[in-house]
Design goal:
With about 270 residues, this protein is α/β, with parallel strands linked by helices. It has a single domain (about 5-270), classed as NAD(P)-binding Rossmann-like Domain (Rossmann fold), CATH 3.40.50. About 45% of the residues lie in helices and about 15% in strands. The chain contains 9 helices and 7 strands. Helix 1 runs parallel beside helix 2 and helix 1 crosses helix 8 (about 225-235). The protein is globular and about 45 Å long. The protein starts with 11 loop residues before the first strand and ends with a helix. The protein binds nicotinamide-adenine-dinucleotide (NAD).
């Protein structure tokens, strides 16, 4: 039996990065509790497959190809949302760029690209959703941030962490501007959640998974489906008086103040 506070029946969500990983899990979770969706990704086949999975649950899902770092494409996506659904209740701002580089080697072009993608383009998604939500006096925006947005990792995450710091502060500012008018804005801060890119890095560096796990008292890496419960909670009326919160989804990493937890060896080698 599900508590009615978690029900999203009759609501419409837009989720980015929905072809795989946390975006896919979030989109499916919203559909499982009754929402219809517009889902986007760069990966056309992947986002179509997620939409088909949602359709099999008996919910509507429109797959849409969009680069969320391109604000013209973001605005066009919201125009499509208007014509397909005419409303938005929930925004899951999941997709975003990331690149590993040590600050001393980093080109300013890469720095600009990552900060633009995470802060400016993510803000464009918040603004497009927020305008529509403010017009009806209700909505929930969920920004995927990172533990790297609130603590230093020291593992070559520099442009990503700086961008995610912007996402954390954008969440607090938008909440302060908008929550009095019915639009809640919260962020989820994952630690390491398995995905194909991370799996490849762990295969290439046999010490990396151990370094991650030293910072996770729960003793395992995250899985994409770990986001489901928290996403439903933040999207639904179950979190009606929660806004501006930065909620860790990290197996306990931030509580132990672990940051990136590079071992002394890794620190010496400046391993990324
Ligand atoms: N996995 C982690 O450990 C972790 C931790 C903290 C934060 N995050 C953030 O969470 C988000 C999702 O992570 P994940 O592990 O589920 O990733 P993932 O790599 O499994 O999936 C990301 C999805 O986003 C899509 N995508 C990438 N760039 C896009 C763009 N510009 N426009 C539209 N779609 C795009 C990809 O095609 C892919 O389907 C990312 O923003 C990531 O930075 C991840």
């Amino acid at each position: 039996m599900t508590h009615p506070l978690f029900d999203l029946s009759g609501r419409v969500a837009l989720v980015s990065g929905a072809a795989q990983g946390m975006g896919r899990s979030m989109a499916i979770a919203f559909a499982e509790v009754g929402a219809d969706l517009l889902i986007c990704d760069l990966n056309e086949a992947g986002v179509r497959a997620t939409a088909e999975e949602i359709n099999r649950l008996g919910r509507k899902a429109i797959p849409h190809v969009c680069d969320v770092t391109n604000v013209e494409q973001v605005r066009a996506m919201f125009r499509r949302l208007d014509s397909e659904f005419g409303r938005i209740d929930v925004l899951g701002n999941v997709a975003g760029p990331g690149e590993l580089a040590r600050p001393e080697d980093l080109s300013l072009e890469v720095m600009q690209k990552i900060v633009y993608g995470l802060v400016v383009a993510r803000f464009c998604c918040c603004q497009e959703a927020g305008r529509r939500m403010l017009a009806v006096g209700k909505g929930s925006i969920i920004n995927i941030c990172s533990i790297g947005g609130v603590t230093a990792l020291g593992r070559g995450n520099f442009p990503y962490s700086v961008g995610m710091g912007g996402v954390a502060q954008m969440t607090r500012e938008l909440s302060t501007e908008w929550s009095g008018r019915g639009v809640r804005v919260n962020a989820i801060l994952p630690a390491q959640v398995t995905n194909p890119g991370l799996a490849e890095r762990m295969r290439a560096d046999p010490d990396l998974e151990g370094n991650f796990l030293r910072g996770i008292p729960m003793g395992r890496l995250g899985r994409p489906d770990d986001i489901k419960g928290l996403a439903i909670f933040l999207a639904s009326d179950a979190s009606a008086w929660i806004s501006g919160a930065l909620i860790p989804m990290d197996g306990g990493n931030l509580a132990m103040n672990a940051g990136g937890t590079p071992g002394p060896q890794a620190l010496r080698e400046q391993r990324m």
